[in-house]
Amino acid sequence: MKFLVTECEFDLNDDYDMSEDDTSKFKNELQLDLQEKTFGVWEADDEDDLIEEITTASGWCIKSIDYEIQLK
Prior knowledge:
By secondary structure, the chain is of the alpha+beta class. Helices cover 43% and strands 31% of the residues. The chain contains two helices and three strands; from the N terminus they run βαβαβ. Strands 2-1-3 form a three-stranded antiparallel β-sheet. It is elongated.
């Protein structure tokens, strides 16, 4: 099946010891970079496989995801 990923939020909680301002800026930039790489069409067997594919490709767990199944 093909899935068009339109929204994806990653769980960016980490163990970095940085000031709150640095951490917030880092997470925002990382979230945008990951979204840019994630949005688009993915091929997977089902929703669980889609999440596994994106998690493996990005190296981050997914908090939430929105997608549309592509019939053609």
